Amino acid sequence: MRMKEIVILCTVMSIIVSIIVGGCINTQQKEKGQICVEIKPTSWDSFREINITVIQINMRKNIGGKDEWIHFLTQKDFINISSNPPATHPLCFPAPADTFTGIQIVIDSISAVTSDGKTAYITLSCKNLTIYNKFKTSAGNNSIVINMKFNDSFIPFSQDRYKFTPVVDSIDIIVDGSETHIESPTMGNRNPIARMSINGNETLYIKVRANETVTFDASLSFDPDNDELNYTWDFGDGTIAYGILVEHSYSPGGYTVFLTVSDGEFADKIKAMVEVVE
């Protein structure tokens, strides 16, 4: 074979290899995409801005007939939501061309500014926001928009103090511009919310007399999943009681009362101070 023919052959082979390799690379690029997770408030009269700090985003996949969670976001990031102008900062991460059917968001903390510009103090009652509703993602760019009722998700306790438990009314799965709207998506178990009233008042401090009968009421507590609840009272003087409505009396002194409400899997706790005088 002459040198000129060898050069031509090598050139042709080089082109063929380039096409094959380029085709593979392009195919891989097509198979790779991203998933963006966004939380949109459908109602939120009390706030001007909210930052939800997330430490994990997991996607559910069926592997060998068993549902498993695949970890994607594994470091702290945050979803910022502001009302003026209305805007959200979604979390995006690369994801393979695959079918996922659920999402779990693990929340680390929430900070917020009220509508009148004050700092809001928010306690996390439910750190995991888990949606099991069947949906599909595929190659390319995907968006999961969680439409959350903020007015129902942030439970006010006192001025500028709230507890967070997520209430989601719908999610939108957008796959390369094609949208699937899911009403009332199936969610994982959420923490109950513990609330108490003392002698008919929802207060975290009360002053009573020694040996006076004090009525403790947990009927304002609730479970967002409507699970049956158990109620445990620790009166702070070594006495424990159970039930929604209980009574107790004290000798003079200061006491911290704890109410723990449990659905059998998750629990929430609230405390109040009782000052007892002669």
Protein architecture, described:
- With 278 residues, the protein is mainly beta.
- Helix content is 12%, strand content 54%.
- The strands form four sheets. Strands 2, 3, 4, 5, 7, 8, 9, 11 and 12 form a nine-stranded mixed β-sheet that branches. Strands 6-1-10-13-14 form a five-stranded mixed β-sheet. A five-stranded mixed β-sheet has the order 16-22-21-18-19, with no helix packed on it.
- The longest helix is centred in the first third of the chain and has 29 residues, at 3-31.
- Mean pLDDT is 85; it is low at 6-30.
- It folds into two domains: 33-183, no CATH class; 197-277, Immunoglobulin-like.
List the keywords.
five-stranded mixed sheet, Immunoglobulin-like, 278 residues, elongated, mainly beta
How far apart, in Å, are the first and last alpha carbons?
114 Å
Q: Which stretches are low in confidence, meaning pLDDT under 50 for 5 or more residues running? A: 6-30
Number of domains: 2
Q: What's the overall geometry?
A: elongated
Label the structural class: mainly beta
Number of helices: 2
- By DSSP, the count of extended strands is 22
Query: Whole-number radius of gyration?
Result: 27 Å
pLDDT average, as an integer?
85
As a percent range, the share of helical residues equals: 10-25%
